[in-house]
Amino acid sequence: MEGKLCAFLGHREIVPNEELRSALSELVEELIKNGYTKFFFTPMGNFDHLAWEVVTYLKNKYSFIQRWYCIEDNFLTRGMIQIPFNSLNFEKIIWLPKEDAVYRDKSEFLEDSDFVIFYVVHDFGRANKAMEYAKKKKVPFVNLGEKINTFKK
After folding, report:
1. Is 41 helix (H, G, I), strand (E, B) or coil?
2. Among 98, 124, 138, 145, which residue's CB has the most CB atoms within a 10 Å radius?
3. Containing domain of residue 29, as a range?
4. For position 91, which CATH number holds?
């Protein structure tokens, strides 16, 4: 299936609220209308789970969109998965060996994406590191954390 790829990256510890859900839903729907058909998730945290919920809901309206899941083998054994893992919840699953864990927040994951939706509200951690990398590599993105802060304090 042709179409553009959008990835999601954000902090683990957020408190999803209606403002963030609504902003994310509007943004994803606009991307779908502009040719984005593949949405790339990792299982790491609350923002990832919220993004998956929004895309899954929109799939009822836009049945052609695909949910891609990038999972590292060690996430299963360490109990780090936030998104309900069931192959029926995704159209494509990408398994990564433990040694390829850097894929999630480094070059290939970001550079393979046509657009990235971040949720970053502080200047430390993996999500911030990935956003800085995206800036450096000129990967198009938006940071919803600049507009809406629901980070757990």
Report:
1. strand
2. 145
3. 4-146
4. 3.40.50.450
* Residue 127 belongs to a domain: yes
Please check whether residue 79 is in contact with residue 100, taking contact to mean a CB–CB distance below 8 angstroms: no
Q: Which two tokens stand for residue 2?
A: 């042709």
Tokens 């433990």 belong to 98
Tokens read off for 117: 């939706």
Burial 95-105 (b: 16+ CB within 10 A, else e): ebeeeeeebbb
Q: Is the pTM of this model over 0.70?
A: yes
Locus of tokens 């802060």: 149
Model confidence pLDDT, tens digit, residues 60-106: 999 999 998 777 655 554 444 445 555 557 777 766 655 555 445 44
